[in-house]
From TrEMBL:
Organism listed in the record: Kaistella yananensis
Alphabetized Pfam families for the sequence: ACT_9 (PF22468), Homoserine_dh (PF00742), NAD_binding_3 (PF03447)
Transmembrane regions: none
UniProt protein name: Homoserine dehydrogenase
Similarity field: Belongs to the homoserine dehydrogenase family.
Residues of the Homoserine dehydrogenase catalytic domain: 305-506
Length: 512
């Protein structure tokens, strides 16, 4: 049962800390502290004794802090000389929050998740009455969190959307469209308070509306993570989630500092999960330490529920023996169409780009790197310690086009036509081209074998029948034997991917 009383916030307090050896429980010490402060006409608030640290803390008005310290220094002059009292000092800029709640543990865990750890906690258990002392830079945020809990108010979740290209802009629109329904149904108030591209970041404490695009046009702040962190701290924003919808190798370097500063993370960007295993593990260590979460369901199979399925199977002890299939939505579209249509390769590639299936630079797909990343991400979900360099990748980009700028490459797409015409013609009759990923070998060992390659398969085979931009993942396990678990569906596209990212945001929000 929630207890509906006011949550009181008293600002401009200071903690007077009194530290020493073996004086706790000694008759008269508390009395002398009070007497000295009363004589000095200083009113005393919350009191706490720390048995382990051997200290006493009292709360006074910040204006009285210096006077309180001096008066206690005088009172305990002898004990200071003998070393019995080692330190008397003040911690300024703190606030007291008083409330009544039966769900004390829940409130403390919500505060902790938001990096708020009270400096003093004073609880009258019989009355469910609690006073906590927090730094003033976190007091409003703490009050909001406590009120949301006690009064069962919709909890506000603050979102920072990094990257507003195909996936990012679709996600923003989806969030704005559904936010009212989510507030009513789930009691979660999703607020997009930051939107960034590679150059600028737009910040809006009250949350962006449908005209977010205009706000980013006139934004002047550089797209730096420091701007976002400072903004979240200055505005005391609780329940923070940063969403990475870039393909940036640079932005992922910010993940650890974001987790350190209280952000959970959601990412459609696959780069972080394919960094060297030491960085991959170190980040997970930071997440654990800071009680933060990182979700990336769309890293493999866009909106398809693949990572979760693999995670669950693996966690439940199911022995996954092989994962293979067509992992790329764009290459699925390209080869499904190129194999059966009388059309140039470059024309079909352009279609895939226009439909938003390819990476920002389509060579990430054609080179096999994007499929290789997906394969590595799955391998690591199985606790394999493969590195990107272990993957055998067939690169479909001719060597002379590999080192061009993206724009130069795109202006020379027609050079791909001859190459792929040859490949198409060289197939057996009734065969089609498919670009596949295969994680195999002894997956009980430290490393698996990862292969990424273009193959030619009979048109009536399972892979041969793939349509549109569908991906197919065959998951072989010990219990399922020769019949794999098959997950198939749209493997790329802004709408399905943004929906998958949105799902991750909701999963995090519900646990907040
Ligand atoms: N398109 C799809 O079907 C799928 C895409 N993804 C992933 O989604 C991500 C985004 O893809 P798209 O939206 O198609 O790309 P896009 O090129 O349309 O958009 C990328 C956005 O990121 C911004 N950006 C780049 N570097 C940045 C930085 N350092 N800081 C801030 N912003 C930066 C760009 O300004 C742009 O707004 C990629 O990582 C992709 O692999 C994942 C699954 C499916
Ligand atoms: N470019 C990727 C998009 C999804 O990850 C693909 O084609 O699969």
């Amino acid at each position: 049962m929630k207890n509906k009383t006011e949550v009181k916030l008293i600002k401009n307090r200071a903690i007077i800390k009194f530290e020493g050896k073996n004086f706790l429980g000694e008759i008269g010490i508390d009395g002398r502290i009070f007497k000295a402060l009363t004589y000095a006409r200083i009113s005393v608030g919350v009191i706490s004794q720390q048995a382990i640290e051997n200290g006493i803390s009292v709360l006074v008005s910040e204006a009285d802090a210096e006077k309180a310290v001096n008066c206690l220094i005088n009172e305990f002059e002898q004990e200071r000389k003998s070393g019995k009292v080692s330190l008397i000092y003040s911690i300024n800029n703190v606030s007291v929050i008083g409330f009544v709640s039966k769900d004390f543990n829940k409130i403390m865990s919500e505060l902790g998740r938001n990096n708020i750890f009270p400096l003093i906690l004073n609880q009258v258990a019989a009355e469910n009455r609690v006073n906590i002392v927090v730094t003033s830079s976190q007091d409003e945020k703490a009050k909001n969190i406590i009120e949301a809990e006690i009064f069962a108010r919709p909890k506000t979740v603050h979102l920072a959307i990094i990257g507003h290209g195909n996936v990012g802009s679709t996600l923003i629109d989806q969030v704005l469209e559904s936010s009212e329904e989510i507030r009513n149904r789930k009691k979660i108030d999703l607020k997009i308070v930051a939107v960034a591209n590679s150059k600028k970041i737009a910040l809006n404490r009250s949350g962006f509306s449908e005209n977010w695009n205009e706000e980013i046009l006139v934004a002047e702040r550089p797209s730096k993570v420091e701007e976002l962190i400072a903004f979240s701290q200055q505005n005391q924003l609780e329940n923070l989630i940063v969403v990475d919808n870039t393909a940036s190798k640079e932005f992922v370097k910010n993940y650890p500092v974001l987790a350190e500063n209280g952000f959970d993370l959601v990412s459609s960007n696959k780069i972080f999960n394919t960094l060297p295993i030491s960085e991959y593990r170190n980040f997970r260590h930071i997440l654990n330490k800071k009680n933060k979460k990182y979700l990336y369901e769309t890293n493999v199979g866009a909106g398809l529920p693949l990572i979760d399925t693999i995670k669950l199977l693996h966690l439940s002890g199911e022995n996954i023996t092989r994962i293979k299939g067509v992992f790329s939505g764009s290459l699925s579209y390209i080869f499904n169409n190129f194999s059966v249509r009388d059309e140039k390769f470059s024309t079909i590639l352009k279609e895939a780009m226009e439909k938003g299936f390819t990476e920002p630079d389509p060579r990430e797909d054609l080179s096999g790197s994007d499929v290789a990343r997906k394969l590595l991400i799955l391998a690591r979900e199985l606790d394999l310690i493969n590195e990107f360099g272990d993957i055998k990748i067939e690169n479909l980009v001719p060597e002379n086009l590999r080192n061009l700028t993206k724009d130069d490459f795109i202006s020379r797409l027609s050079e791909l036509d001859v190459v792929f015409d040859e490949v198409k013609k060289s197939q057996q009759k009734s065969h089609v081209l498919r670009f596949t990923g295969d994680l195999h070998g002894d997956l009980q060992k430290e490393k698996g074998e990862l292969d990424v390659k273009l193959i030619s398969v009979p048109v009536d085979s399972a892979l041969g029948q793939l349509k549109g931009s569908d991906s197919i993942f065959e998951i072989y396990t010990e219990s399922y034997g020769e019949n794999p678990i098959v997950i198939m569906g749209a493997g790329a596209g802004a709408k399905v991917t943004a929906r998958g990212v949105f799902g991750d945001i909701l999963r995090l929000s519900e646990n907040k």
